[in-house]
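Figure-free illustration: sequence to structure, shown twice.
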Amino acid sequence: MTARSRPTARQVRLGAELRKLRDAAGMTARELAGLLGTNSAQMSQIEAGNAGVGEERLRRLAAHCACADKELIDALAMMVTDRTRGWWEEFRGVLPPGFLDLSELEHHASFRRDVEIIHVPGLLQTEDYARAVFSYLPPELPEAELEARVAHRMGRRAIFEKDAPVKYQAVIHEAALRIRVGDRGASRAQLDQILALSDREGVTVRVVPFDTDGFAGAGSAMVYAGGPVPRLDTVVRDAPHGTAFLDAESQLDRFRALFRKLEAASLDPGKSRDFIHRMTKEL
């Protein structure tokens, strides 16, 4: 089997989970490969996400590793069999891979939780807001790539249009709502957009006002995507080298607790809506 030139984050995650099963069983790659009728080099490629694995072999692997977690095994089998080529594929070779990995993660998520302190969450941004964000940092992007990034960001809202929309929660600091990345009109349109999207079923928006006491979470921005089982949850954070996908259990526990803390510091959805509505009147 030809190795993948660039596995997606989803493919890498599947391989990493298979590696965890093997490690938990105390087996070497060579030992497990022998039981599966392959070789250690191929086993390493599978665990790195560079090679695929069929559902039958995956279930045999889980059995040899004495994994009795049926929900996890079924979830991994779903990752193997679901080869969806979504709308984001039209941007392959046009945008950096991290953009496409995020779209694929969102498409398969069971829920999404966002925390933003400085910027409006990407899923809630208007075209003008997104264009202003992508235009700001030097060096200036070529026009074609700038428009591709904006189009991709707008396309990500497809998770709200699915037959079973992804449940979405956002905690946004007042700073992100007040900072004018564009002009006054663009800021008003952005607030109206948040209000309109918050009317959708399954969409919850909460605001942390400036006058909230004891708020020291300025560095708490995150995207939290729920997997089919909690072990397959993922946290996405921006890093200097690009987008970082975090999935270690200790990291997931930390960000789950952090989200609950930030949620507790925010206004309830009704009061948050009133808060944003008042802001539109000020513009």
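We now fold a second protein in the same way, so the two outputs can be compared directly.
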Amino acid sequence: MQKVGILGGGQLGRMLIQAGIDFDLDISVLDPDPNAPCKLFANRFEVGKLTDFDTVYRFGQTVDVLTIEIESVNVDALEKLHQEGKKVFPQPQVIRTIQDKRLQKQFYQKHQIPSPEFVLIDNKGQLNDHADFLPAFQKLGKDGYDGRGVQKLNSPADFERGFEKPSLLEKLVDIDKEISVIVARNESGDMRTFPVVELVFHPEHNLVDYLLAPAQITPEQVAQAEALAKEVMLKLDMVGLLAIELFLTKEGNILVNEVAPRPHNSGHHTIKANGTSQYEQLWRAILNLPLGDTSAQSLAAMVNVLGASGHTGNAHYEGVNETLGVKGAYLHLYGKKLTKPSRKMGHVTILDQTLQGLEEKIDLIKGSIKVVSK
């Protein structure tokens, strides 16, 4: 039985473990939260800080293959493990590039990968030097996620609330749609993409409200998005699973927004909707197995189940019966004990044979399921 380790014990790791059971893997998980979603599912669960060198290094020594479900990890420890012959996927240098949005944007620039124009900001005071760059989004270099660490700056009057830590200013793009492609690559160099999906963002929380699969775009745009995803994967020379979030502009151009070197929110639906899920595909990639069939079995949507506004405390789910009563709806709860506003608590995958049917079910489910505190 092969020993594998996952850095991070959240919902992505939980679903990764569920897929890994079929491969008879001995799975260990490291996470700072003693009640992390992976706790009851891993063969071995260890509480520890993901950014601490010694903790990550010692954990990595106990497994044959090491992977991540979150980018905020100690890369120095991973590099030492890699140098000592441990299999670490994605490779440490890939994680180092991606975990800092400033390095990520410079990587796109260096390799001529189309991405919105940007400038680097070392501190809040430097914003005054770039008033003519507005409107723009300011993004923290590190530790921003799920809409945190990102804010829109429309005019110099907004500089007062600027981030003090190193960040970047990204030129506002006239977006028609936001889309995503997930691509996998194994050590043998085999590479396969999942069908392009369309992301619809929550108007307040700046994270995905729901997605549609496949994206409602032209075949030419699909081909362009898939080619761009493969190009990024190859330029990174990465083994594993990479999610590429893209902007489709009003002019019809496709630009790379951000990437994540792990399973991603935009691939949850693949558990039910595709021949191979993104989680199984990650195992196939890092264990150097043949990659699975990614074709869609049905039209699909995925609705994020978020903590309700005004509710912080022990999680209680309302509308479960109504949700499961919808034909083609599949509920996935993440096992998080505590809810807070806009926290990702689960998702619902919806299958249907028509786009109209999907959209009707999306509205129905969004009005049914609710996470409150009790």
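Summary for the second example: The two ends are 42 Å apart (CA to CA).
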